[in-house]
Design goal:
The complex is a heterodimer of chains A (about 375) and B (about 150).
Chain A: E1 19-24, E2 36-42, E3 45-52, H1 60-64, H2 69-79, H3 84-99, H4 105-133, H5 138-158, E4 167-168, E5 171-172, H6 178-203, H7 206-212, H8 220-223, H9 231-234, H10 242-245, H11 266-290, E6 309-317, E7 320-328, E8 336-340, H12 342-348, H13 350-354, H14 359-368, H15 373-377
Antiparallel strand pairs in A: 1-2, 2-3, 4-5, 6-7, 7-8
Chain B: H1 2-27, E1 50-52, H2 68-72, E2 78-83, E3 92-98, H3 108-112, E4 118-120, H4 132-135, E5 137-138, H5 148-153
Antiparallel strand pairs in B: 1-4, 2-3, 3-5
Classes of the chains: A alpha+beta (about 375), B alpha+beta (about 150).
Chain lengths: ~375, ~150
């Protein structure tokens, strides 16, 4: 992707026998969105892989420069449609930091509870799609049946199923009721017992092990240079999670672990995500137990005018570290907004991993990176 | 040879374990429902397209045509024109048009309304052969209008 001009795909040298250029995407189910990868192949082996970005570019940063702070909120969910609440949280947190708004305790707990539910649903979608890439259909159906339970729960409180717009500056838009909390409790119990099925069905499976073990190994010295984050980084033995290393919201009060695997292959990334689901269940259980009473929204002015200055805020989305940098000039629209999205960094390592792989393995690697393309292009 | 047999055994074992999961799931209750013969329940806070709330006494809309929702909308999809009906103290809407093709269903208009005049519809089965009816949804349809007589004269 960052190759210099003379290496660009448009000036490929004449190909030898057996060598050809394969265009993967932009309309290909294996790329999970409008990502195009130009593959220079030798038989079934990949010589170079060159991702082409921008098919889903929507000028999110420019749009944000022309809109009041409140109106940018719905756009957040459109960037990463699988983790809309994490993006919601990043945006409300950065504006709250800039303006110094207080957030009631109950609101913070609700935010963490719903975001972790969202994280599990995102991991389940990845689980289904990843195994679909590997040619397994049954796990996909199991994952989606369980994900459906989360979507139903979140729909009950937020009103929508995917592109949530639930958090507000100084709290959340509406309170949760007891039936929702009871539903979450039931879900946690159901999931704790049902996760075993996932491991029986997939983790122990011989074919799955052979397809993922030692495939697409990210070496530890590559991790920081490519700007990796999230499960992709933690699969290579780096213990870095924004929830721990730069805690926000109520995460410092909660007791949870950051799963780390050392191998750096597809299987390690898979294991990190599956263990993260368990940790998210732990976090949800703790927020349920400690859920305080009180208001869910503090009073903030209707028109938000942060003082001139800038603020930066990082949160951990299911895919890794999302950072939002906002510069304000004291008016009601931001002067400049910059998003540092996790999938972009995670995608950049793909060209390196795909080199010398079989095409089928490269798709397994692409799946294990868990990319959301609108977030890469934004 | 020993390894080869072991591989076959392991393969068969994971096949049996996998099939066991499939078989047990086959005997449990189905999670899907057959739309349109049955429909999934819609939650209380479901966000459909917006519609105007009716004032039960008068049959008029509660809208005072202040334009809060127009300003709150990130997608610029609401158009409101208001005027004072004769003898009334407050303004009332002459035109309240929603461009549903642009709407992102964020609900900021509902939250911004000072008189609680906007609410969400519970209609989710919206489909049509052209976008035109959705681009110009007249939300005043079905509500009594204080302007009706005047408009007849015109």
């Amino acid at each position: 992707m960052f190759d210099s001009q003379e290496n660009s795909t448009y000036q490929l040298e004449p190909v030898e026998d057996n060598q050809f250029v394969l265009n993967l995407g932009p309309q290909h189910p294996g790329t999970h969105g409008v990502l195009r990868v130009i593959l220079h192949m030798d038989g079934e082996y990949i010589l170079t892989a060159d991702p082409v970005l921008g098919y889903g570019h929507r000028m999110q940063e420019k749009i944000a420069e022309n809109m009041p702070y409140t109106q940018i909120l719905p756009y957040m969910a459109r960037m990463d449609y699988l983790a809309a609440l994490s993006f919601n949280q990043a945006w409300v947190c950065v504006v709250e930091k800039m303006c110094g708004y207080e957030v009631p305790r109950r609101a913070e707990y609700i935010r963490v509870l719903t975001t972790e539910l969202n994280r599990i649903s995102s991991h389940y979608l990845w689980f289904g799609a990843f195994l679909l890439d590997l040619g397994a259909f049954t796990p996909f159906l199991h994952a989606f049946a369980d994900r459906e339970m989360i979507l139903d729960l979140l729909e009950e409180v937020t009103g929508s199923r995917l592109t949530y717009c639930y958090f507000r500056f100084g709290g959340v838009s509406s309170d949760v009721d007891d039936s929702f909390l009871q539903g979450v409790q039931d879900f946690v119990e159901h999931m704790r017992s049902h996760l075993k099925t996932y491991h029986e069905l997939v983790t122990g499976n011989v074919i799955f092990q052979m397809r993922t073990k030692d495939v697409g190994v990210i070496l530890p010295f590559d991790t920081w240079g490519y700007g990796l984050s999230g499960p992709v980084l933690r699969g290579s033995g780096e213990k870095y999670d924004v929830r721990i290393s730069e805690p926000y919201s109520i995460y410092p009060e909660l007791d949870f672990e950051i799963p780390v695997e050392r191998d750096g292959d597809c299987l390690a990334r898979y294991m990190v995500r599956m263990r993260e689901v368990e940790e998210s269940l732990n976090i949800i259980q703790q927020t349920l137990d400690k859920m305080p009473d009180g208001p869910v929204r503090s009073k903030v002015p209707k028109i938000i005018k942060p003082p001139a200055g800038e603020a930066c805020m990082a949160v951990e989305t299911p895919r890794g570290e999302l950072m939002i940098h906002v510069v304000s000039d004291g008016t009601k629209v931001p002067y400049r907004v910059r998003y540092r999205v996790p999938s972009f960094g995670n995608l950049s390592v793909f060209s390196r991993l795909a080199k010398g792989q079989l095409l089928a393995d490269a798709l397994a690697v692409l799946g294990s990176l868990d990319l959301v393309i609108p977030e890469v292009d934004r | 040879m020993n390894n080869y047999l072991k591989e076959i055994f392991n393969g068969l074992k994971s096949l049996v374990i996998g099939l066991k999961v499939t078989m047990t799931t086959m005997l449990t209750k189905s999670t899907t429902i057959e739309w349109p013969r049955e429909a999934a329940p819609i939650p209380e806070r479901f966000r459909g397209h917006i519609m105007l709330r009716k004032n039960e006494e008068t049959g008029l809309s509660k809208c005072i045509a202040c334009g809060s929702c127009v300003r709150a909308c990130p997608s610029n999809c609401i158009q409101v024109k208001g005027a004072k009906p004769e003898g009334a103290k407050k303004k009332a809407p002459i035109l309240f048009q929603l461009d549903f093709t642009k709407c992102s269903l964020c609900g900021l208009c509902v939250e911004s309304c000072p008189v609680d005049a906007i609410t969400f519809s519970r209609n989710y089965a919206l489909a049509g052969p052209s976008s035109e009816p959705f681009a110009t949804m007249n939300l005043l349809a079905g509500l009594a209008s204080p302007f009706r007589e005047e408009s007849n004269e015109l």
